[in-house]
Specification:
This protein is α/β, with parallel strands linked by helices. The protein folds into two domains: 1-94, Metallo-beta-lactamase, Chain A; 128-235, Metallo-beta-lactamase, Chain A. 25% of the residues lie in helices and 28% in strands. It has nine helices and 14 strands. It has helices spanning 15-21, 39-42, 45-52, 67-70, 82-87, 141-145, 171-181, 193-198, 200-211, and strands at 6-9, 29-34, 62-65, 90-93, 99-102, 105-110, 121-126, 129-133, 150-159, 169-170, 185-189, 214-217, 222-226, 230-234. β1, α1 (15-21) and β2 form a beta-alpha-beta unit. α7 (171-181) packs across α9. Bound molecules: zinc ion (2 copies).
């Protein structure tokens, strides 16, 4: 994606604080995607929409989300209020099997096995190749096969070793998942507290040894650039008190 087509995927709790730390101006955001109706994936979504619509003064920002996120279903969601859906430029429900253009990128919408059954994973076709965001899911071959062709695989490995929480992946599952997809790099995201205590870097290296594929643990404010090579860096933190220089 380029700077004109910035997409926020699952702005969970703390997303705004992190953006403030790197002096990110929310009026640059083009689209917001919410994969499903769990707060670790949507808690800051309405605030992001406020930001990209200049506090509701300008109808802008495109919202994409699961049925539960946008409409609500079976007691889950909606996660984005009617007001915020109205101040955005558009609001689109996405479901597995859809192919949509998000932020100028052809995006395949993938299936997951989660206790929000409408949860979606995303396969972004960027200029540099496919970048996949796998949202919360149990492991199955069918789920993993959807992501074949990805150069970057962002994998929600919530728990270490062979610990299992229904609807989530553990390190042992990640090995099977990565073996099927064979990306150039796998990045562990969605790290739970037990995973953090066990050391996500150690867990990623277990997966790397088992698969022979570069595997790392994600960090706050980590940047991944995809070109001929894939490069990693950390975004710089700026001092507090910054106010973006923008007006509607
Ligand atoms: Zn979830
Ligand atoms: Zn989650």
């Amino acid at each position: 994606m380029n700077n004109d087509n910035i997409v926020h995927v699952d702005p969970g709790p703390g997303a705004l604080t992190q953006m403030q730390k790197i002096r990110y101006d929310l009026t640059r955001t083009e689209s917001v995607v919410v994969s499903h109706a769990h707060p670790d994936h949507y808690a800051d979504a309405e605030s992001v929409i406020e930001g990209c619509s200049f506090g509701g003064w300008r109808k802008r920002g495109k919202i994409y989300g699961s049925v539960t996120a946008i409409k609500g279903q079976d007691g889950l969601g909606p996660c984005i209020s009617e007001y915020h859906q109205k101040i955005a430029e558009s609001c689109t429900v996405i479901a597995p099997g859809d192919i949509v253009t998000i932020g100028g990128m052809v995006t395949e919408v993938c299936e997951s096995k989660h206790n929000d059954p409408t949860n979606v994973g995303l396969k972004f076709h960027t200029d540099g190749g496919i970048v996949s965001y796998v949202s919360d899911t149990d492991f199955s071959e069918k789920i993993a096969k959807q992501y074949v062709g990805s150069r970057i695989l962002m994998l929600p490995v919530t728990v270490p070793d062979d610990l299992r929480i229904k609807g989530h992946l553990c390190t042992e599952d990640s090995v099977k998942f990565i073996d099927i997809v064979k990306p150039e790099i796998a990045i562990f995201i969605h790290l739970g507290i037990v995973m953090i205590r066990h050391g996500p870097e150690k867990q990623a290296s277990i997966a790397e040894k088992a698969t022979g594929i570069k595997t790392i643990a994600g960090r706050d404010r980590m940047a991944v650039d995809i070109g001929d090579d894939i490069t990693l860096s950390d975004l710089e933190i700026h001092e507090q008190g910054w106010i973006p220089d923008t007006s509607p």
